[in-house]
Automatic annotation (TrEMBL):
<comment type="function">
    <text>Catalyzes the insertion of molybdate into adenylated molybdopterin with the concomitant release of AMP.</text>
</comment>
<feature type="compositionally biased region" description="Low complexity">
    <location>
        <begin position="1"/>
        <end position="13"/>
    </location>
</feature>
<keyword id="KW-0500">Molybdenum</keyword>
<dbReference type="GO" id="GO:0006777">
    <property type="term" value="P:Mo-molybdopterin cofactor biosynthetic process"/>
</dbReference>
<dbReference type="GO" id="GO:0046872">
    <property type="term" value="F:metal ion binding"/>
</dbReference>
<feature type="domain" description="MoaB/Mog">
    <location>
        <begin position="186"/>
        <end position="331"/>
    </location>
</feature>
<dbReference type="InterPro" id="IPR005110">
    <property type="entry name" value="MoeA_linker/N"/>
</dbReference>
<dbReference type="InterPro" id="IPR005111">
    <property type="entry name" value="MoeA_C_domain_IV"/>
</dbReference>
<dbReference type="GO" id="GO:0005829">
    <property type="term" value="C:cytosol"/>
</dbReference>
<dbReference type="GO" id="GO:0061599">
    <property type="term" value="F:molybdopterin molybdotransferase activity"/>
</dbReference>
<dbReference type="InterPro" id="IPR036135">
    <property type="entry name" value="MoeA_linker/N_sf"/>
</dbReference>
<keyword id="KW-0501">Molybdenum cofactor biosynthesis</keyword>
<dbReference type="Pfam" id="PF03453">
    <property type="entry name" value="MoeA_N"/>
</dbReference>
<dbReference type="InterPro" id="IPR036688">
    <property type="entry name" value="MoeA_C_domain_IV_sf"/>
</dbReference>
<dbReference type="InterPro" id="IPR036425">
    <property type="entry name" value="MoaB/Mog-like_dom_sf"/>
</dbReference>
<comment type="pathway">
    <text>Cofactor biosynthesis; molybdopterin biosynthesis.</text>
</comment>
<keyword id="KW-0479">Metal-binding</keyword>
C-alpha cells in the first residue's frame, strides 16, 4: 500500500501528470467509446439500469378522456335522468340525449356527449329518482394527450432507470425498455501491512478501503458482489498478476488500492504491463490523490475492461473515485458527463500551486454554500465522514470567501435524488 507524498512521484522520462479537468474528459470519452451494449429488458428488471434510447409514449396520455372524480357524467341541463353507469376499465357508450346522465368512477372513460361531471358528494336525488346539483365550472376530467402526445419523448437516453421511470414507461404502454446494464466492478486490496479486523498497531494499519470502496461503487451504479472484493493481496508481482487476471475475468472495471507509485513493493505498474494494458491516465495533477491511474485492456474479441488504480491513502482513494471512476462509469452506461454544481465558498480554501485542489466541504444546498471541513489529510477519513463533496480550487488559484467554485458531490444511492 503506497502513500501519497508532496513530490510528483514521476520517474525520469514519464509524461507529466494530466490536468484534473483534462483527465475527467479523457476518461469519460474512453468510457463512452466502450459503452456497454444495449439490451431489451422487461420493465421489472430495469431498475438501476440506464436508458439506451429515449423513452417515448406509445399512445396519447391519457389515451381517452378520463374522469378525475367519482360522480355523474351529465349532458345538458338538469335534473338528469340516470341512464347507466361506467366504471374504470369499461368502454363508455355515448350520452345521446340532453338531460341524461351516467354514474362514473374515477379513472373511467368519459362518455362522448358529456358536458360536465357532477361530483357525487355535491349531488342530490329528486323524488322521481333524477340527479340534481350544480357542476363546477372547471372540467372534472383529463383530456386526451393532456400529459403527452403519441410518440413524444418523455425521458432522454442516458437517464438512470428508477421506479419513477419504470412507472412512466408502464403508463404509456411499454412492456420492455432498451437499457444498458449496471457495470460490474471488482476491488483488489494491496498491502501486506493491512489488518482486516481489530485495532491498528505494531506497524500495521487497518484496511479502510476494502469495506468502504464497494459502497461508493454501488452508489455510482455498479454491481459489486461478495466475491468481487479480494485482499489483502500479497506484495509480490505474481500474486498481483494472478489477482488482477482473475478479477478481470468477470468485471468491467477493477479498482485497486495502493501500489500506484514505484516503490519497492508497488507492483501495479509491472502487473499492468504484464497483462498488456494501455494507460488512459497515469497520474493526475490534483491534491490529494495525485498518484491515481486508469488503464484499459482489450481482449482479442474486442471486449474492453478497465483498471482504476486508487492511491493507498483513504481520502486520496476517494478523490480518485470522484475524479476518474465517476466519469468512466458515466461513459460506460451512456449517461451524460456529470455537470458540477457551482457553490459559494463560506471560508477561504488554499490553492495547491499548479495542481487542482479538491477540498472536502459540507454543502448547504439551500444557501448554495460550501463550508470546508477539518481533518482532511490524505490519510484521514474523519473529514470525509462529515462532508458532502469536494470544492474545486483550480491550479494557480486559491479560494477566497465568497468565490464561486465548482463542487464535486459525493455520490448518492442509485436512483436517489438530491
Amino acid at each position: 500500500m503506497s502513500t501519497e507524498t508532496e513530490t510528483t512521484g514521476a520517474e525520469v522520462g514519464t509524461p507529466p501528470p494530466a490536468g484534473w479537468e483534462e483527465a475527467r474528459s479523457r476518461v469519460y470519452a474512453v468510457g463512452l467509446s466502450a459503452a456497454l451494449p444495449a439490451v431489451a429488458r422487461p420493465l421489472a428488471d430495469t431498475d438501476g439500469h440506464t436508458l439506451a434510447e429515449p423513452l417515448t409514449t406509445r399512445t396519447d396520455l391519457p389515451a381517452f378522456p378520463t374522469s378525475s372524480v367519482d360522480g355523474w357524467a351529465v349532458r345538458g341541463a338538469g335534473p338528469w335522468r340516470v341512464a347507466g353507469r361506467v366504471l374504470a376499465g369499461q368502454t363508455a357508450s355515448p350520452l345521446d340525449e340532453d338531460g341524461s346522465t351516467v354514474e362514473i368512477a374515477t379513472g373511467a372513460m368519459v362518455p362522448a356527449g358529456t358536458t360536465a361531471i357532477l361530483r357525487i358528494e355535491e349531488s342530490t336525488r329528486t323524488a322521481d329518482g333524477r340527479v340534481a346539483g350544480t357542476p363546477r365550472s372547471q372540467p372534472e376530467w383529463r383530456e386526451p394527450a393532456e400529459e403527452a402526445h403519441l410518440g413524444e419523448e418523455l425521458v432522454p437516453a442516458g437517464t438512470p432507470v428508477d421506479p419513477a421511470v419504470i412507472g412512466l414507461a408502464a403508463s404509456c404502454g411499454h412492456d420492455t425498455l432498451r437499457v444498458r446494464r449496471p457495470p460490474r466492478a471488482a476491488l483488489l486490496v494491496f498491502g501486506d501491512e493491512l489488518l482486516t479486523s481489530g485495532p491498528p498497531g505494531a506497524g500495521r494499519v487497518r484496511d479502510a478501503l476494502g469495506p468502504s470502496v464497494p459502497g461508493w461503487l454501488r452508489r455510482y451504479g455498479c454491481q459489486v458482489r461478495g466475491g468481487d472484493v479480494v485482499g489483502p493481496v500479497a506484495d509480490t508481482l505474481p500474486a498481483h498478476v494472478a489477482a488482477l487476471r482473475g478479477a478481470l475475468a468477470n468485471a468491467d472495471l477493477v479498482c485497486t488500492t495502493g501500489g500506484t507509485m514505484h516503490g519497492p513493493v508497488d507492483h501495479l505498474h509491472p502487473t499492468l504491463e504484464a497483462l498488456g494494458a494501455d494507460y488512459v491516465v497515469n497520474t493526475v495533477a490534483v491534491r490529494p490523490g495525485f498518484p491515481m491511474l486508469l488503464a484499459r485492456l482489450v481482449d482479442g474479441d474486442g471486449r474492453v475492461r478497465f483498471v482504476a488504480g486508487l492511491p493507498g491513502n483513504p481520502q486520496s482513494a476517494v478523490v480518485a473515485l470522484v475524479s476518474l471512476v465517476a466519469p468512466l462509469l458515466a461513459g460506460l452506461t451512456g449517461r451524460p458527463m456529470p455537470v458540477l454544481p457551482q457553490v459559494t465558498l463560506a471560508e477561504p480554501v488554499p490553492g495547491r500551486g499548479d495542481h487542482t485542489h479538491l477540498a472536502l466541504a459540507r454543502w448547504d444546498r439551500v444557501a448554495g454554500t460550501a463550508h470546508p471541513v477539518r481533518h482532511v489529510g490524505s490519510a484521514m477519513l474523519r473529514g470525509l465522514a462529515g462532508a458532502d463533496g469536494f470544492a474545486v480550487i483550480r491550479p494557480g488559484t486559491s479560494g477566497a470567501a465568497g468565490d464561486r467554485v465548482p463542487l464535486v458531490p459525493l455520490p448518492l444511492m442509485p436512483g436517489e435524488r438530491s
